[in-house]
Specification:
This protein is an all-beta fold. Helix content is 3%, strand content 53%.
Length: 386
């Protein structure tokens, strides 16, 4: 079936645009946004995260918005049948509008009865060019489980945010965030029969160790990715500085290294140090940049939003022609196992030291330390920091 996008010269394969180039059920195409007032700009720090995804081979499109403020974890989520028009970015009361590609986007969550505690009308405007990250590829027991591409961008926000009936103006001098667009293959939807992957010997080795940081400073932003297996072998890594001045091309910062300090009895990060090391000329020292990370507010991204913790609501899962729901939790009442089994998107402060001088910034420090990881002493799924 044709769709309006077929009228543009953007085809990649001998198919209509709504048919992707693989029949893999796990193909996805999604948006991620986060939005926050700079620490100290409001009385209580808050962190808003928004996502919208299409799953062409599952016939589903879904979206969520989740707000962490104080002890509140407020969730909006919606799912609907994916129609023939891939440019339709509405899921119930939530919609994404691309106002100026790779620069300005508007995201609206209209007031609704199902999730009455949260609504917004927000416009993201970039302050750096969009930057492609390293391709993410994982093969497990011969099957490709991850094959994704993503770009990242930082920027400012304007508009308004309403929480519990109180509307707060959002102005670009005080509200920052980052967004990404990713697409490809990764596990989504209902769990498949595990086959050999369900063997106890395989599950004992399974891990997801991931650090993703997006930092905004006055003249540039830094994007960093690390994923490692249980022994510390790298699966994907990236460390790039993107300058606001477009005359400067993106700059590879070198190999990223990590030193995490976990809160006792948990796998939550209390502090972190990231080091970017670029080899120097023979006989001379390596060039290095050090970033001290200070988490301000942890946001349990997976709780209620579809990242796999709740078996009745997962990204790409068929819920019906249109389903809209709202959830609300107290953060201190979220089960500890859920906090351990999902990525934690920390709103964080960063201090970057280069050439002996410090620069200060804010942004995202996303950490998942799920399963075994030898360096930090996690031998199994349930181990925690001493």
């Amino acid at each position: 079936m044709l769709s309006p996008l077929d009228d543009f010269p953007v085809h990649q394969i001998a198919e209509v645009i709504r048919h992707v180039g693989t029949s893999d059920r796990n193909f996805y195409d999604r948006y991620y946004f986060n939005c926050y007032p700079q620490p100290g700009m409001v009385e209580d720090p808050l962190f808003l995260i928004i996502g919208l995804g299409q799953y062409p081979n599952l016939g589903v499109m879904d979206a969520f918005a989740v707000l962490r403020r104080g002890d509140d974890h407020i969730v909006f989520r919606a799912s609907k049948a994916l129609g023939s028009d891939r440019m339709d970015l509405n899921v119930g009361p939530l919609r994404v509008e691309v106002l100026d590609g790779l620069h300005r986007l508007r995201i609206v969550l209209a007031p609704n009865a199902q999730a009455p505690n949260l609504s917004f009308d927000l416009t993201f405007q970039s302050n750096i060019p969009a930057a492609l990250e390293s391709r993410h590829f994982v093969r497990q027991l011969e099957r490709v489980t991850f094959d994704t591409q993503r770009f990242v961008q930082t920027g400012t926000w304007s508009g308004e945010l309403t929480v519990d009936g109180i509307t707060t103006p959002v102005t670009p001098d005080a509200w920052l965030g980052n967004r990404d667009r990713s697409w490809g293959v990764r596990p989504v939807g209902e769990a498949e029969p595990p086959g050999r992957r369900g063997d106890p010997a395989e599950t004992a080795r399974a891990n997801f160790f991931w650090i993703y940081a997006v930092m905004q400073f006055e003249e540039f932003s830094v994007s960093m990715i690390i994923q490692e297996d249980a022994e510390g072998r790298r699966i994907v890594e990236d460390a790039t500085r993107i300058w606001r001045d477009k005359a400067h091309p993106p700059e590879w910062l070198g190999r990223p290294e990590h030193e995490l300090v976990f809160q006792s009895g948990t796998r939550e990060v209390a502090s972190a140090t990231l080091t970017f090391r670029r080899p120097g000329p023979v006989g001379q020292p390596d060039y290095s940049i050090i970033v001290a990370c200070d988490p301000v507010l942890p946001h349990y991204l997976g709780v209620g939003t579809g990242y796999g913790l709740e078996q009745d609501w997962r990204h790409g899962m068929w819920q019906g022609d249109l389903v809209v729901q709202g959830l609300r939790h107290k953060v201190d009442e979220i089960e500890p196992w859920k906090k351990m089994m999902c990525p934690v998107d920390n709103l964080a402060r960063f201090t970057l030291t280069e050439h002996g001088a410090d620069q200060h910034g804010t942004g995202l420090l996303e950490v998942a330390a799920i399963g075994p990881h030898a360096r930090y002493g996690f031998a199994g799924m349930g181990d925690v920091a001493p």
